[in-house]
Each structure stands twice: as C-alpha cells, then as structure tokens.
Amino acid sequence: MKIPFIDLKAQYELHKEEINKEVIGVFESTQFILGPQVSKLEESLAKFTGSNHAIVCSSGTDSLLLALMALDIKAGDEVITTPFTFIATAEVIALSGATTVFVDIDEKTYNIDPSLLEEKITSKTKAIIPVSLYGQTSDMDEINLVAKKHNIAVIEDGCQSFGATYKGQKSCNLSTIGCTSFFPSKPLGCYGDGGAVFTNDDKLAKKIRTLSNHGQEERYKHKYIGINGRLDAVQAAVLNVKMKYFADEVQKREEIGARYNELLKVSGVIPPHVKEDRTSVFAQYSIRCKNREDLSSKLNQAGIPTAVHYPISLHQQEAFADLGYKTGDFPISEKVSSEIMSLPMSPFLTLEQQDFIVKTIKEFA
Ligand SMILES: Cc1ncc(COP(=O)(O)O)c(C=O)c1O
Predict the structure, then answer these.
(1) What is the CATH number of domain 246-364?
(2) SS3 324
(3) Class of 8-240 per CATH?
(4) Would you list the DSSP string of 28-90?
(5) Whose CA is nearest to atom 4 of ligand 1?
(6) Which of 6, 157, 224, 269 has the CA that lies 20 to 30 A from 364?
C-alpha cells in the first residue's frame, strides 16, 4: 500500500470539472489581478469566520507581515511568539525590524504557554503572535487578557488552523488580527501561494488592504510603503470552488483525527491532545515518540510517508543567532522538536489506509 501524506490528487479529481471551469473562466475574462473572484472569496471567508473583514493576500507569510505593518511594528519594538513553529512566524518579525521574544510552549498542546507571557512583557512589547499549531488554537482568552492589560495587539497565526473553533468561534476571528495561509497542503489550500488577513477593526482592515496593494489608496497615490501582496484571481477561483466543500472536509478531518486518537492508545506513542473547548482541523496529525527515527523508517519502509514539523526550534536556528538564545532556553520546545512526527492526514485518508498506519505503528511499539 502506498499512502499519500496529503491526498491533494483525490480532492482535485472530485472537483476537477468545477475547478477547471472556474479557472478557465478567469483566463477568458483576462481579469487576473483582483476582480470578482477575489471579492467573492473575501465575502465568503468573512462570512465563514464571522469576521467583519477578510482581505486575501499572496501568502500566509505576507498575511503576517501585513498584520505587523498595519500595527506600525518597527525597529525598537518587541513581539512575543513561540519558538515551536514554522519560521515564517518569526521571520516577519525580523523583517519588520522588531525583536522576537520567544516564550516556551505548553507540553500538551504544543502552543505558547500563556502563564509565561507576563514575565516577558516590557514597555517595548507591541504584539503577541500565538500560533494555532497543527490546527488547534492557543488559549486565546488568557492571551487576550494579558494583551488587554498591557494594551498590546494579538495576531493569531492561524496558517494551520483555518476552520478550527475555539469556544464555538472560528479561528482567525479570535483576536486583533487573524492570519491564514492557503498553501496547497493547508486545510484550505489553493493551487499556488495564497493567504488572508481577518479583523473586526474597520481602520485596520482598510490599512491592510491598502498595504497589500503598494500602499495605494487611489491609482498611483501611495499613502504608505506597502508590498505587492495581492492574491491572484486564478487562486481565488480555485478557493471559491473549494469553499463550497470546506465545512464537510473540516468535519472529515475532525473524524479522522479523533479515530487516530482512539486507535493510537499505544505505549510509547503520545497522540495529539485537543482541549475540550476547541476543535482542531489537524493540518498535521502529529504524534510524539522517543525513537522517532526508528519508527519513521519502519513506516517509510511500509510505504507510509512521515514528516517532522519541526525538527529544530527557532531559537536554535542559525538565522536567529543574533537574538542570543542558546540550547536549553526553551526546554519544552526542544524536547517536543526531538520527538514529534507527523502521519498522513487529509479528508481523503481511507479507513483502510488509517488501519494500516495504526497496525504498522503497533507492530513497532
Ligand atoms: C504556522 C505557519 N505560519 C506561517 C506560515 C506561512 O504560510 P505561507 O507558506 O503561505 O507563506 C505557515 C505555512 O507554511 C505556517 O505553518
């Protein structure tokens, strides 16, 4: 049995006719930048999340950069985030000129530990970026409370969690600004790069939209230094089709994640822990195992692909050496980085495939 890590092919085959029709429609209209497909997508994303504004953009990375730019975050400011994330979260802080301040994670959810935030806040702190890792949001109430007390913004890096809920509310609509990615392998993925920014603040929304289009409010009148951060109409057309089926896919992801958790009660394996007041979209289904390398080679030999998200904590990356952190500074993040491993996951993973993966893990255990 050869199991795909994420079955994008099965999804395309299912909606091929509709996707092809919409994409060809864009080609024929020659409206490649902005236009009706982009506006339609923004409306449906805002409706889905319950957010007043959705501004689509060129990638998840740019969605985070636009959020920082809209909040005027610059050199001399500090932004708090987790060291256990994809580099983009902290990369944009460095690009804005601000200093990244890492806070360790909670050992159960792998998300930022809100009890450690207060001690890292200084007069320079301008924002906190909690990451909704693997598709599960952080403890947003606790984080928002600390932020409110110190009058700082909260930017949710929801690049992996679009479609997840926290206390009944949708991810990306839980704080000052929410950001997401439509990278092909994300729960809602397009056929290239894409992302979106969400906010309920009218002024911020207007600024984010302007910044994403070269700071231009009217043609060739530039209010800010912005970026070319627009989403292509072709990508919007793909996403408009996928949005129709997204709620069903989220449900399937939840069911497959829950079934994995039920079946993987195996000694030596720690399945993901989803807190009771929230749901995960399982952008990644990641387990922990002390002998990760042996387990992954056993799985790979059986035709089961695996991946590690992420093998090195950001404070240990060469790119962040100038921050002056050292090994041992964030022990939970370091421990989880050395044990974590992602298994195949998609709404199209069959029961038979899942049983085979679990059987192979059990044989190893
Ligand atoms: C947590 C996190 N933040 C940011 C990003 C960046 O998104 P993109 O690849 O769309 O730029 C990703 C996606 O790879 C991510 O997983």
Answers:
(1) 3.90.1150.10
(2) coil
(3) alpha beta
(4) HHT--BSSHHHHHHHHHHHHHHT-SEEEEES-HHHHHHHHHHHTT--TT-EEEE-SSS-THHH
(5) 88
(6) 6
Nearest to 156 by CA among 256, 89, 246: 89
**Can you give the residue ranges of every domain in the chain?**
8-240, 246-364
Ligand 1 atom closest to Cα of 182? 10
Residue among 79, 111, 129, 160 whose CB has most ligand 1 atoms within 8 A, to mutate: 160
Ligand 1 contacts (CB < 6 A) are 59-61, 85-86, 88-89, 131, 157, 159-160, 181, 183, 193, 195
pTM for this predicted structure: 0.98
Pull the structure tokens for residue 353.
């495939």
pLDDT in tens, the chain (365 residues): 789 999 999 999 999 999 999 999 999 999 999 999 999 999 999 999 999 999 999 999 999 999 999 999 999 999 999 999 999 999 999 999 999 999 999 999 999 999 999 999 999 999 999 999 999 999 999 999 999 999 999 999 999 999 999 999 999 999 999 999 999 999 999 999 999 999 999 999 999 999 999 999 999 999 999 999 999 999 999 999 999 999 999 999 999 999 999 999 999 999 999 999 999 999 999 999 999 999 999 999 999 999 999 999 999 999 999 999 999 999 999 999 999 999 999 999 999 999 999 999 999 98
